Amino acid sequence: MMISSPKQPGNDIDVYLSPVIEDFKLMWNQGVEVFDGFANETFKLHAMLFCTINDFPAYGNLSCYSVKGNKACPICKEDTASQQLKHGRKTVYLRHRRFLRSHHPYWRLKKAFNGHQEASGPPTPLTGVEVYEKVNNIDHTFCKSIKKVICDKHLEEEINLL
Ligand SMILES: [Zn+2]
User: Fold this and answer.
1) Are 49 and 74 members of one domain?
2) From the CA of 43, how far away is ligand 1's center (Å)?
3) pTM of model > 0.90
4) Which of 17, 112, 116, 134 is most buried, by CB atoms within 10 Å?
C-alpha cells in the first residue's frame, strides 16, 4: 500500500490500516473461499500478516517503538550505544560490530569505527514471554483526529491480532 499525500500520515496510519486489519481478522478467524485455477476448485484461504517492509519512521508509527533519541535501535533496545555527533548534532548508533561472528576482524579495528575495539557480543534476544510483557501494557494514543475511546478499541483489536 502506498499512501500518496503531501504529508506523511504519522500515527494516523492506523486509519489506513483499519480496513486491512479487518480483512486479516476475517481471513484468520473464518477464512475466505477462493478459487484455485490449477486444481479447478475452491478452498478456504486463511492468512496472517507475517511482516511489513517500511522505512524507519514508519516502523516507529507501526510498532510504537521510539525511533528517535539515545535508545532508538530496536535490536539493541536498552543496550543501545549511541553518540551525538559534535558538528552535525545527529545521534548515531554504535557497537553493531558485536553482531558479527565472534572475533571477526572488524572487532579489533579502532580507527575505522569509534576508536574502540568491540569487547562483547550481541545482547541476548528476548523470549516470547518477555516480548509479550513489554507490549502487553503499551499505552499509546493513535488517531490524532479521532476520539481516544475509538483508539482504545483499535488498540484492543490490534492486540487480539497478535
Ligand atoms: Zn543496535
Assistant:
1) no
2) 43
3) no
4) 17
* CA of residue 83 to ligand 1 center, whole Å: 12
More confident residue, 60 or 153: 60
C-alpha of residue 70 to centroid of ligand 1, in Å? 11
Position 162 in a domain: no
Give the pLDDT score at 146.
46
In a domain, 60, yes or no: no
Q: Are 143 and 16 in contact (CB under 8 A)?
A: no
Question: What is the signed CA dihedral for 68, 78, 104, 114, rounded to 10 degrees?
Answer: 50
Q: Which domain holds residue 100?
A: 68-124
Ligand 1 centroid – CA 116 distance (Å): 16
Using the mean position of ligand 1's atoms as its centre, give its distance from the Cα of residue 58 in Å.
Answer: 18
Residue 134 lies in a domain: no
117 contact partners, CB below 8 Å, separation of at least 6: 107, 108, 109, 110
Residue 15 lies in a domain: yes
* Secondary structure class of 40 (helix, strand, coil): coil
What separation in Å is there between the alpha carbon of 126 and the centre of ligand 1?
Answer: 14
120 and 83 fall within a common domain: yes
Residue range 85-106, pLDDT digits in tens:
999 889 999 999 999 998 899 9
Quote the pLDDT of residue 139: 67
Q: Are residues 17 and 45 in the same domain?
A: yes
pLDDT bin (cut points 50, 70, 90) of residue 147 is very low
